Amino acid sequence: MHPSPHRFNASRRHALVVILAVIAFILALARATNRESTADEVLFSACLTLALATALVFFTRRIGLGLLLAAGLVLALRTISLVKQSYLGTLLYASDLLYFGNGNTLDVIAHYPQIWHPLALRGALALGALAVCIAWERPLWRRIRTRWRLLLQLAGGFACLIALWALAAPTGPFRHIHARGEWEEITSTSPLTSFVLSLYRMHVDIPAPDPQLADRYDWGEPATPESPPANPPERRLPDIVVVLEESTFDPAILADCTIRECRSAMFDADAYTLAHGPLQVHTIGGGTWTSEFTFFSGMPSTLFGRAGLYAPFNLAPHLRYALPRVLKEHGYRNIAVYPMGANFLDAKRAYEFYGFDAFHDAAEFNLGWESSDLAIEQELEKIYRRERASSDQPLFLMLLTMRQHGPHSDAYAKLPKPYDHPLFPQLDDKLNLCLSNYLARLSGSLEALTRLQTMLFASGRPAILAHFGDHQPSFDGYIARLRGADAVNGLGDPRMLTYYMIRSNDPAAPKHGYPVLDLAFLAGLILDTAEIPKGPFFTANAALRERCKGRYLDCPDKGLLDSYLSFVFAHLHSLSR
Questions:
Q1: Are strands 395-400 and 463-469 parallel, antiparallel or unpaired?
Q2: What is the rounded end-to-end Cα distance, in angstroms, of the chain?
Q3: In the sheet where 333-337 sits, what is the strand order?
Q4: Which residues, at least 6 apart from 154, have a Cβ–Cβ distance to it below 8 Å?
Q5: What CATH number was assigned to the domain covering residues 239-571?
Q6: Which residue, 258, 412, 494, 529, has most beta carbons within 10 Å?
Q7: 121-135, 292-306, 418-432, 560-574: which range is least confident on average?
Q8: Which is more confidently placed, 206 or 560?
Q9: HEC per residue, 531-558
Q10: pLDDT tens digits for range 394-406
């Protein structure tokens, strides 16, 4: 008997699907590993992918489907990792899926069609290929009894998963890849290897220098967090308002930004200015939550390894000292005004750990992603006046803006003059559009800050207004093409420079100046300008600031820095385990 045409066609479809799937898998594997830095990392990634593919073949009983599923997963991992690196400066880590795999992240991505449009197209193509496999590919082991087939599937699948675990383990055949240092791992450009290694290295690393180093310098009294604060002099304490300006830096630090539109009074000293200048931050393109932590805690988030990227979740709950807590000890009421939802990156809960008494989010104000700085500043005004009407208690208000967040891609027709056309003939179209958007939004920030300062300084109370940039914008990854001006040479990585400004209506308030100031020192500097006793942690923080002339991790005297870290972590136990 001859086989029926239907069976013959089904066999041909089955063979075609398997052959095409094998070819697609080989091409996908080559593509997925082409950004790994070394041959060992390519081999490491390939072995893991093969083990995963084999496990999926067993579990699905289809060769083509298993291979394509594995290929799709590693390609998706590579693509998402490279997109994250382009916008935020770091590759994808395992904890990103735990902490950021939610609707808040999807809402942010929705504002970047240049990200999700190609991802959606690739996802649709992948689903189509998988559907073809399911429809045309015949399952393996169809003639084996069900119980034995299930046993074979489970035994084979779990054996492959065990092999996958053994290959990835720090004690496995690729242990030399796990042996590289933490900094080498953080700065790696290998998306697949970095993701796998992050599975084993996402715990919080608290610096642990020799405790005896703390005594090499005088860092002040090693008080405990429970010690009563020193009472400030009998005087009216100033209201303090701090504005975190999203994605904001002084464009004059760019070599190509020399035209009149690149100058803004937002960065210039005036009669009220107590301190201002370049600010060294520890993230680029995103990661505002890490800058929030660094500001409140007086500790760079990068001190704690990769886990510092998730500060609201794993560092904020363990803080023993923070700016809002110090202020609360001196009678302040601490209020946060937040431009996103309260649950965005665990913000409300983290702010409670920092020491805030009240938290007002965007849902309360009915503000959106595109709302201006002035819109949220006006909400802060209402809150301030309401609080002032009900109590004479000194206030600390923390405001975050949002408008300067990317993408910076509004069409010129939507921008006000003089930003409604390319301003930089020496730059390409993309950078011109980004810079025009940035400068237009910067003018809006200046308007909001000017109004806020006028209102605050006319309130009849002593007041301090501080504002700073949390990080530079990404410009969809294009900002790396812009050169720094000669004026910023020697101030550190120009990509990590923003700005800070502290102003007061108290003419007797002390003034300070530094060539560059680390963000981890800004809270202590605000306490100094307010002349509020700082407590043991921020007293030591201020001592390091003065001795290192505003620098922290790049303090020229490494012995001094080691002594300080020993005092902070071994004596003060600034981050509890």
A1: unpaired
A2: 75
A3: 358-360, 333-337, 395-400, 239-245, 463-469, 497-504, 273-280, 517-518
A4: none
A5: 3.40.720.10
A6: 529
A7: 121-135
A8: 560
A9: CCCCHHHHHHHHHHHHHCCCCCCCCCCH
A10: 999 999 999 998 8
